[in-house]
Amino acid sequence: MRLLSALRAVPLLLLAFVLTLPVLAVFASWLPWGHGGEESLAILREMAATVLPDYLATTVWLAIAVGAGAALVGTATAAAVTLFDFRGRRTLEWLLLLPLAMPAYVTAYAYTDFLQFSGPLQVWLRATYGLEGRLLPEVRSLGGAVWVFVFSLYPYVYLLARTALGERAAHLMEAARLLGAPLARRVRTVALPLARPAVAAGVALALMETLADFGVASYFGIQTFTTGIYKAWLSMDNRLAAAQLATLLLVLVVVLLQLEQRAQRRMRFAPSGVGRAGSAEAQPQRLAGWRCGAAWVVCGLPVVMGFLAPVAFMLRPLAADWSVLPWDRFVEWAGHSVRLGAITAVLAVGVALALAFAVRRRAGRLTRGVVQLASVGYAVPGAVIVVGLLLPVGWLQAAVPEWRVPALITATAVGIVWAYLVRFCAVALQSVQSGYARIPASLDDSARMLGTGGLGLLARVHWPLLRRSTAAAALLVFVDVMKELPATMVLRPFNSDTLAVVAYQLARDERLGEAALPSLALVAVGLVPVILLSRTLRASGSR
Question: What pLDDT, in 10s, does the model give residues 153-181?
Fold first, then answer.
């Protein structure tokens, strides 16, 4: 029996090794056998005297500004649509989710094309009013990056704060009103403290996305940890410096992940029965007149700045001249993106099903540990995953030059799909586990009594009930792969440019009109899960 248990653990251990190798390789760069030791410390001291202070200061200021902005916008919009009732509230509830479909780097391209010195707005202002020189602040700056990130990432805070307020605030707000508390005090002392853990969790998620970003920081010329990693690896050809920066970035991400998990645990302090009731006493307060207008401004401005305006800015060059667009190449780019997304989605769903089924059958310490390791991958930035995959490839190439494994990783789709699986298996696993949570354990007992066990249980009992969850998991992984930029840009096979990479390259070459086509394609793909999410929220809110 012990031998059988050990053999069953081998696939799980191999899977854990595959999913954690990038992180382990980054930390191994500090060890002597990882060509670290004194050389690593020397490189770190050199970076501390030159570029590291700038990387740290820029990253910290960017995180502080984005966190404050996302908290303000996300909390204000969630409170407006949850605590108050006004004309158009139902429409704004799902419109506020639309910026989730916009990759932050696409929003950056759109604003740069429209607001830069040679953009249509400044050209029109100079021609109309006879002005000269620069009339608007530089878009490609730290302030411009904060603007882009805030209006691209506030939905993380909005979603969690809206759920927290909708489940807990209605009855308590009504009780405070009956005790004579004015509206401002009810919001300040009742609603906002209830939403604080949710806001903290949403801000942590937004900051993890900000730290993992490469497209916006690189395009705007901001010296963050992520751009420093790629500069150290690709420009200075110093893999140890890239590993040191990747380690520091990973430590910051782990801190944010712990903050998010603590906030999520604090969100469970209230019983689920204190939800929004359907009684008239616990309904949102009706707004009219200028208050209704103020609610429209609070909810409408983020939608305009985060979705409608960038889409309009990208449609302008398309409408001006369709003939210059590379339609034949666009089909090729889209085909590469779809192929990589489909392969990764199938593999990620397969891994998620295997892990979730293993936990369902035997929820031991090893199984739960592997699941936790697989879930951490989504918080690891793409830059860290790239460094973590290429480091062992370099070590293997130096140790055994005649082996073809490094070429298999770097010259084919194996390496990039591996990176995608490390990054996005957690997305598929969360969806599959939520599907398993709706399957009662009594069905498993009944199937075993009827002689069905092992893989037969998965194929004949679980799979028919998990089809919708696995389809949702595959869709989410597919969309995330389509929008992924850092790992794709470095690990993509030769002559296999994707929509995300091409959009970045065209924007970097100041061909923003041509970059609009692949950028809008990414937005259209991202709209699919946003629409499904809005339908799910609407269905749960109507119960």
Answer: 999 999 888 887 876 666 677 777 777 77
542 CB-side CA count, 13 A: 8
What is the 8-class DSSP label of residue 492? P
Concatenating the DSSP letter of every residue in 412-472 gives SHHHHHHHHHHHHHHHHHHHHHHHHHTS-HHHHHHHHHTT--THHHIIIIIHHHHHHHHHH
How open is the CA angle 178-183-188, to the nearest 5 degrees? 110
What distance in Å separates the CA atoms of residue 211 and residue 225, rounded to the nearest whole number? Answer: 8
Distance CA 115, CA 43 (A): 40
* pLDDT, tens only, 54-65: 888 999 999 999
Please state the φ and ψ torsions of residue 285, each to the nearest 5 degrees.
-75, 135
pTM of the entire structure? 0.85
Encoding tokens for residue 358? 């293993």
- Are 482 and 346 in contact by the 8 Å Cβ rule? The answer is no
DSSP 281: G
In angstroms, what CA-CA distances link 540 with 82, 166, 294, 535?
A: 14, 11, 27, 9
pLDDT computed for residue 276 by the predictor: 44
